[in-house]
Specification:
By secondary structure, this protein is α/β, with parallel strands linked by helices. The protein contains 14 helices and 13 strands. It starts with 19 loop residues before the first helix and ends in an 8-residue tail after the last helix.
Length: 486
C-alpha cells in the first residue's frame, strides 16, 4: 500500500456553517416576539397610555395567542423544509397560521362572552400590525439569508474519503448539483494506486491521519466515505477510527448495505446516504446546553460564594499550600485543558509515581488531608469547576474528565475499553449519569471503567435539558451517601 508523504493545506473559513435549523429557530423566535411586542405596544398606546402595568386579562390573551399560533405554524409546516432556498420563507403559511389564531381567539371570546372585556381597536390593530410586521420582517430576513448564502455561510465543509471511481462519481454529481449548502474540500485516500489519471478538479489532500488533523483544526464539518461496501474490513477500520470525531459521517451509496443495518438515511445532493454518526448535542440543542451551563454555573457560584470562602479558610488552616489545585485532563474533541479543584492533598505529596503514571487516590490514602477527606467525600472539592463551566471547558452535566495519565494495570483506558474515546464527543461535566448511578470513585477494575463508559454513552445519545436537570437533582441526594468516593 502506497501512502502519502506530503499533504496539502486546506484554506477554508475556521467557523462552522450556519445550520438551516438555526434559521427555522430564528423565524420561530421572531414570530412569537412580534406577536407579544405588538400586543403590549398596542395596549399602552390605545388602551391605557397613562398606566405602567398590564391588565392580566390582556396578558392572558397574548400568551394564549402565542400558544395557539405555535400550534398552527407547526400544523401548517411554516418552519419545515428548506428556509435557505425558499423565496418567500413560508410567508403564506405563517399568514394562514396567524389568521387561524385570530379566528380561534374571536370564537373563544364570543363563546365565553368576554369580548366586551377587551378593546376592539386594540384587537384589530394587534391583528393587522402583527400581520404586516411578519411579512416585512421576513423580507428583511430573506435579504440577510441571501447574503449569507452568497458568502458560503451555509456550506457544509465536506471531505470525500476515497478518490477512486466511486468517489470521483460522487464528487462529479455534487459539483453539477451546485448546492449552496455543500462545499467539497477534496479527497482523502491512503492509496495512490486507487486514484485515476483524470479527476473531477478536487485535490487529494492526504491520508486518514491528515483528515483527523483537519478535523482537530475545525476545518471539516462532514465526511463522506466513498469506498466499495464490499471492502468490509476496511470500512470497519475506517468507521472505527472516524467515529470518535465530532463531525457528521456519511456512507455513500453502494450494494453492501447489510454491513450497517438499522441506520437512518439522509439526503446529500439528492442522494441517499447512511447516517453513520451525528455530532451529538448540536444545533439548537447546543444553544440550549450552553445557556443551561452559563445560567446554572452563575447561579451556583452566587449561592456558594460563602461556602467557597469557608472551604478556602479551612484548607489554609488544615495544611500548608495553595487553596486550589489544577490538573490537565482531556476535554471535548480530546483537547487537553486544566480542571480546577480545591486542594485535598498535602502540598508536598507527589501526584505521580516514579514510573510517571498517575497514582489514583485509594481508601485511607495518606496523601489526603483531614479537610480533604470531607471535601472528596462530599464532592465539594469539585466546586471550582464552575469556573471551567463559565469558561466553556466543561458542562454542569457530562462525562467526568479523567486524568490524562490514568491507567489500569499499565494500560490506558482508551486501549482496554471499546468506545472509550467517544466520551470526548461532548464536553466533560461536573457530574454525570454514571456518577449518579454509583459509578464514581476509584477505577480499579475493568467493570467499573466499562460501566462508566456505558452510562456516559447512554447520556450522550439521550441528552435533553430535562435529563440534565434530573441528573443535577439526583446528584444532590447521591453525593453525601455514596461510599465510593474518598
Amino acid at each position: 500500500m502506497d501512502s502519502w508523504a506530503v499533504t496539502k493545506n486546506v484554506s477554508v473559513p475556521s467557523t462552522a456553517p450556519v445550520s438551516p435549523a438555526f434559521v427555522g429557530g430564528l423565524l420561530r423566535t421572531f414570530d412569537l416576539a412580534v406577536i407579544g411586542m405588538v400586543a403590549i405596544a398596542g395596549y399602552f398606546i390605545r388602551v391605557h397610555p397613562d398606566r405602567v402595568d398590564l391588565d392580566y386579562r390582556y396578558v392572558a390573551a397574548v400568551l394564549l395567542a402565542m400558544m395557539i399560533c405555535s400550534v398552527f405554524v407547526k400544523w401548517f409546516g411554516a418552519y419545515s423544509g428548506d428556509y435557505v432556498l425558499s423565496k418567500q420563507l413560508r410567508v403564506d403559511r405563517v399568514m394562514m397560521a396567524w389568521i387561524s389564531t385570530a379566528c380561534v381567539l374571536l370564537a373563544l371570546a364570543y363563546t365565553l362572552k368576554i369580548s366586551e372585556l377587551y378593546s376592539r381597536g386594540w384587537a384589530i390593530s394587534w391583528f393587522a400590525v402583527t400581520a404586516g410586521i411578519l411579512v416585512v420582517g421576513r423580507l428583511a430576513l430573506r435579504a440577510i439569508i441571501r447574503q449569507w448564502a452568497a458568502q458560503g455561510r451555509f456550506a457544509v465543509r465536506t471531505i470525500i474519503v476515497g478518490a477512486g471511481e466511486q468517489g470521483q462519481r460522487l464528487a462529479q454529481h455534487l459539483t453539477q448539483l451546485q448546492d449552496i449548502r455543500l462545499h467539497v474540500l477534496g479527497f482523502i485516500d491512503d492509496r495512490t494506486t486507487r486514484i485515476p489519471s483524470s479527476t473531477t478538479g478536487y485535490d487529494v489532500l492526504g491520508d486518514i491521519d491528515h483528515l483527523i488533523h483537519l478535523v482537530r483544526q475545525n476545518k471539516v464539518d462532514q465526511i463522506i466515505i466513498a469506498l466499495p461496501w464490499s471492502a468490509e474490513q476496511r470500512l470497519r477500520e475506517l468507521v472505527g477510527k472516524l467515529s470518535m470525531m465530532p463531525v457528521n459521517i456519511r456512507l455513500a451509496p453502494d450494494l453492501a448495505g447489510f454491513e450497517f443495518p438499522d441506520l437512518e438515511i439522509s439526503q446529500i445532493g439528492q442522494l441517499p446516504m447512511l447516517c453513520l454518526m451525528d455530532r451529538p448535542i448540536s444545533g439548537w440543542s447546543h444553544v440550549s446546553k450552553t445557556i443551561e451551563d452559563r445560567v446554572l454555573a452563575s447561579l451556583f457560584l452566587a449561592l456558594t460564594a460563602p461556602l467557597f470562602l469557608l472551604i478556602a479558610i479551612a484548607i489554609k488552616l488544615d495544611s500548608r499550600g495553595p487553596v486550589f489545585f489544577k490538573q490537565r485532563r482531556y476535554g471535548f474533541n480530546n483537547t487537553p485543558f486544566e480542571v480546577w479543584k480545591f486542594r485535598s492533598m498535602y502540598a508536598d505529596s507527589m501526584p505521580e509515581t516514579a514510573a510517571g503514571q498517575l497514582q489514583q487516590t485509594a481508601r485511607a490514602d495518606a496523601r489526603v488531608t483531614r479537610i480533604g477527606r470531607f471535601l472528596r467525600k462530599s464532592s465539594l472539592d469539585e466546586l471550582p469547576q464552575l469556573f471551567n463551566v463559565l469558561t466553556g471547558n466543561m458542562s454542569i452535566v457530562g462525562p467526568r474528565p479523567h486524568a490524562m495519565a490514568h491507567r489500569m494495570k499499565g494500560r490506558l483506558f482508551d486501549d482496554i475499553v471499546n468506545g472509550y474515546p467517544a466520551r470526548h464527543r461532548v464536553k466533560p461535566g461536573m457530574t454525570g449519569w454514571a456518577q449518579v448511578n454509583g459509578w464514581r470513585g476509584e477505577t480499579d477494575t475493568l467493570e467499573k471503567i466499562e460501566k462508566r463508559v456505558e452510562y456516559d454513552l447512554y447520556y450522550i445519545d439521550n441528552w435533553s435539558v430535562r435529563f440534565d436537570l434530573m441528573i443535577i437533582l439526583k446528584t444532590i441526594f447521591v453525593v453525601f451517601k455514596d461510599d465510593s468516593a474518598y
